[in-house]
Amino acid sequence: MTEYVLQTIDLGISFGGLHAAKDINLKISDNEIYGLIGPNGAGKTTVFNMLTGVYKPMTGKFLLCGEDLTGKSPSEINKKGIARTFQNIRLFSNMSVIDNVLVGMNNQSKCGVVNSVLRLPRFWKTERSLREAARELLAVFDLDGERRVLASNLPYGKQRKLEIARALATKPKLLLLDEPAAGMNPQETAELMDTIRLIRDRFDMTILLIEHDMKLVSGICDKLTVLNFGTTLAEGSVSYVLNNPEVISAYLGG
Amino acid sequence: MQGKRKFKLKHFISYIVLFAALILFIVLDSVGVLRRSSLLLITQMSYSIILAVSLNLIVGFLGELSLGHAGFMCVGAYIGGFVANILYDAGMSSAILVFIISAIAGALSASVAGLIIGLPALRLKGDYLAIVTLAFGEIVRTIFKNLDVFGGAMGITTRKYGSDLFVVAMILVIFTVFVARNLIRSKHGRAIRAIRDNEIAARSVGVNVTYYKLMVFVIGAFFAGIAGVIYAHNTTPVNQSFFSFNYSIEILVMVVLGGMGSINGSIIAAAALTFVNVQLTTQLSGDMAAIKNLIYALILIVVVMFNNAPALAGVREKVRLGRLIDRLFPSRRKPSETDNSDNGTAAWDKIPTKIEMDALLSTDIIPENTADISEKDGDLYD
Known about the structure:
The structure holds 2 protein chains of 2 kinds. In chain A, 40% of the residues lie in helices and 23% in strands. By secondary structure, chain A is α/β, with parallel strands linked by helices. Chain A folds into 2 domains: 1-81 and 172-254, Rossmann fold (3-Layer(aba) Sandwich), CATH 3.40.50; 94-169, no CATH class. In chain A, helix 3 (97-104) runs parallel beside helix 6. The termini of chain A are far apart. Chain B has a domain at 37-267. The radius of gyration of chain B is 22 Å and the shape is globular. Residues 1-6, 323-327 and 330-382 of chain B have low confidence and may be disordered. Chains A and B meet through helix 2, helix 3, helix 4, helix 5 and helix 6 of A and helix 6, helix 7, helix 8 and helix 16 of B.
């Protein structure tokens, strides 16, 4: 059996009779950029919420590198290696840019409360190494110069980048991007595509993304799954999926 | 480089001021200048500061509204006083030793209470949690009122520590500030502030929200317990009526007045309000309680309005820069900044409304174009 980074098996959830997602079967291989598309209300974000533990799936399960993570809490799932961004940006807006990233790195430092409060040598050592790592990461996203700015004072595009940086700070195996291009102009979207490719290559990352922008989707995704009314409409390579008559009718309402 | 050094001084300024005050008071006391009432006032200020700083951990940094802080103090005062009585009865004569042991007992039992109240805090948010903590404070009071071991409605009679209690109290203030600051300025503090800013995002980056919420409640209660023990060694009898809901609100006022999420602010506000309070109590007779509360209410209203009204954004920016020099030379040199805050929601967003009642809905961020304001607040924790 080939090992997928993420495999979902008949994953599903319903809210009071409405099948928000049903029998979702995704198979994402290492280093792949996988797109999850579909009209509004198709259940894309619901899938993300199940994969990150915000919702507990009612049916099916999902495996990260072969390990069953179904039903675990969001923080546990993150520790196991799934990180995400949000459709509506959720930064720690009253904290500085670098602090946002440092929160993401929290689980990489083994410095207890006593160590921290008493400022023992271990505190300084871990703090220094975390800070260096955080600045390195910020530099990748060209945010190092603004590390002391409050996150809420960043321009929109940079907030998106910061959110990605924060997710990467947790050292995930799989990165989930929820509409990364939402609210961006064509130029910013083009930049974002470069960023996503860069993330994949540089961090050797597997990425699952939700997106409406077809240019972005067809530009960077290796494979696609189309959802409609909570069920899988089509899956496969980009050109196959986008030429699928059912997909076209779902999108155009034909 | 120079900026860096300045910033370090900023981190130590509270310790420097507190130590200086402590030494000053000790000297003045040994010379005999300080009156007894002044010493009493210093002690009262000290436990107010401890209460305000510890409540700030819960309200300002964790972002949960707690209206039962006096309840934790009550636990500390009763248990601390009780333990001190036992020790004195057992023939222990060293007051400082009795104080230390009773402080540990009082603080630990308050922590247990914090753990108990922290558990529902994991499930409740905002207003609901506030109501539970409010009820907790009242329940604690009622329990002590009805236990004969603790003197029933009369309260527990304790032995006063002596006139040098203020030294112990101020050392404990420094200890509290030390713990609170170092906790906040560590990875744990970042996690705590992250929960305040966006709990869902905090979970998504692996922050153990349950653990940190409990931790903050326990630590907050611990220090409230210490404050209670100081109170018990300062006042006799320790009566439950002191730890009423009003007193919890008084502490909250100190936190709000000083600025949520600002430890130095809490110190200043707690000291100032206690001073005002005690002065009013001693100067006014008759209906003074009513006037006192009136002044509290007015201060709270004015400060909250000043901190949040968009119309005052410009004024706020100027005052925020804080330094005397800036006030002496009203900043014409940064007109762009004031413009920014006037024309949009930018300044409004910058004022942290720390208690996010509904983290689920309130996080849509409006795109902004204020890239380059390297706020002084921003590097406070860097």
